[in-house]
Amino acid sequence: MxxxxxxxxxxxxxxxxxxxxxSRDSTTSITTAQIKAIAPTSNSCDNPPAAGECATADVAAxxxxxxxxxxxxxxxxxxxxxxxxxxxxSGDFKYNKNxxxxxxxxxxxxxxxxxxxxxxxxxxxxxASQLSAVANDPAKLLDLLxxxxxxxxxxxxxxxTTQCSADVRGQLQSGSEDGxxxxxxxxxxxxxxxxxxxxxxxxxxxxxx
Length: 209
Known about the structure:
The protein is mainly alpha-helical. The protein contains twelve helices and no strands. The termini are far apart.
């Protein structure tokens, strides 16, 4: 009984620390349910529009989580933006290479350009021995990345952490719309359209940003 006064503050401390903003906002776990909430049609790959390209939320979630762990993307606000980008660009993960208009070598789940895919592939040590054979063939280099779901879904986190400035990332981590727009226009290099915003808003809600 004499231990209770000593244990009570400790138990309270553990309870408080488990619910701090840092523990809520800094994690790399992503669930299937969260992906479905962001990309509503990712629940199924029945009758996919492009053979061999569709991935369900069950496949996307662990591979995206792995990428956040690999590239140390722990901010929920950044994660929401990256997932929203990939879900939008891939049509709820139905595609992983460009079909419209069909740029050879453009792809992975965030549909990055052949130039970025070359940089990305070069950063993956496990692909080092295979790169020389596809160095002059963007489509085949893309196929190397698409063949492994970890690399296919890892491009979004890689792009954020290697191609976006510290200033852009700082704004994005705020979770604000202005921060998201800075990421889309200032780093991804495209328009922060209403269609893109809808994905981002779903991602923010799903991840609790």
